[in-house]
Amino acid sequence: MGYRIVQSFSVITCLLFLNYFLTESASTSESIHFLKPGDVVTNDKPGLQIFCHSANTKYVIHLWRSLTMHLNINIDNYDLYDGKNQQEVVEKHDDNQRSWRFNLFGTKRSNKLKINPFEDMCVGVYVYPSHVHKYTMSMTQTRVDIWKLMLTILGITIYWNAYKLSGNPLFYYLSGIMLGITTSIIILVYFASKLLPRGKVMYLMVATGWTMSFYLLQGLWENAHLIAVQYKEYVVWYILGTSLISFVICYRFGPVTNPRTKKLIEWFLQIGGLIAIYYSSYFREASFFCCIVMVLLYNFPIILIRKGKNYWKNMFPERRKLLTEDQYRKEGIRETNKALNELKGYCSSPECNPWKTVLRLKDPIRFAKFMEGESHLSDDESRDHDAEITRIIEECEYTDDEDDY
């Protein structure tokens, strides 16, 4: 009799769980919301609600664009699931509900969800029926994400100045101090692990308490700001102490002098700069193209600039500007004086053979006077030139008078 009661109870329990899961899966297909920038959706239904965003078209002007989903909810006991589509979100939700593991820290995430505006994205919010389930989900768009723009500028600066930074003593000491602070924290964690019990108790904690350990680490990370504020004096003294020790060690060994070591530091800095540029935008194709352009400009700057100028001139040839008569006369005088000076310079240089030049001239004496600084025109030629200019000016004035009549 007792066996039948237990069996009936087990069957009823399985049916209830099956009905619950089917109801949850069916309700998700009717609880899908497609959001656009500026939309706000208020939900007061229990269960899983899915909020999706359709991919935007990629343009270069959207290089630093970003989207953020804001979840405004007053409870802490809820689950978030993300995926490329609603089916993936439902599968993650169903898998989490069917699993019988004890999840102490749950799947809770930040209330601000950064999403890629150029990809399809869905976010599922599951609130347990026993809690108040009213909340709002909104979406905002940032046309130019300042942090991503700063990351791009930082990556370009690091890549372009990697050679200078690899041999800069100030950068060497700052890097050494930062490395010393980080290493000291790792050492503290190592010595803290030595305080844990050994033997069978340790194995039991590893086997059954890993979720608790992860939960504690997560709590410490999330409350790092609070810890730094409450114990700021200890934090400041700790940072000052480790910085001083790191500076002393760096000063003892001195800056890097080996050229190969400097080259390795330069390569690592350039790789870090390229990684920063690549991940500074959701438009991966454009950011990857920026990385290629940076590498080419850094290694082949003169050739690329010259080819770019030639390509620009061929595509957009410069329009020739017509000169006025006054500009034409001034340009002729300037070019004539320039050519005469070049002739004097060539005849005075060792490349010119004076005897061959004299044999080719009709009036060597006049040429010698020209080389000594006299005018290249004779008196008669100057008078004829002035008379010709006067005649041209009079003709122009006579023509203008006729046009007025």
Beta content comes to 5-15%
What's the alpha carbon Rg, rounded to whole Å? Answer: 40 Å
Structural class: alpha+beta
On the 0 to 100 scale, the average pLDDT is 77
The main sheet orders its strands as 1-3-7-5
Unreliable stretches, pLDDT < 50, 5 or more residues?
15-29, 101-108
Q: How many beta-strand elements?
A: 8
Sequence of secondary-structure elements: HEEEEEHEEEHHHHHHHHHHHHHH
| Fraction in helix | 55-70%
Determine the N-to-C terminus distance: 133 Å
Largest sheet: 4 strands, mixed
Q: Which oligomeric form is depicted?
A: single chain
The total of helices stands at 16
Given the C-alpha coordinates, what overall shape results?
Answer: elongated
In a nutshell, what does this entry contain?
This protein has 405 residues and is α+β, with helices and mostly antiparallel strands.
Question: What report would you give on this structure?
Answer:
The protein is α+β, with helices and mostly antiparallel strands and 405 residues long. It is 63% helix and 11% strand. The protein has 16 helices and 8 strands. Mean pLDDT is 77; it is low at 15-29 and 101-108.
What topology emerges from the helices and strands here?
Elements: H1 2-29, E1 32-34, E2 40-43, E3 47-53, E4 66-72, E5 78-83, H2 86-98, E6 112-115, E7 121-127, E8 135-142, H3 146-160, H4 162-166, H5 169-194, H6 200-208, H7 210-222, H8 224-230, H9 232-253, H10 259-278, H11 284-299, H12 301-315, H13 325-348, H14 354-360, H15 364-371, H16 379-404
Parallel strand pairs: 1-3
Antiparallel strand pairs: 2-8, 3-7, 4-6, 4-8, 5-7
Helix pairs in contact: 1-2, 3-10, 5-9, 11-12
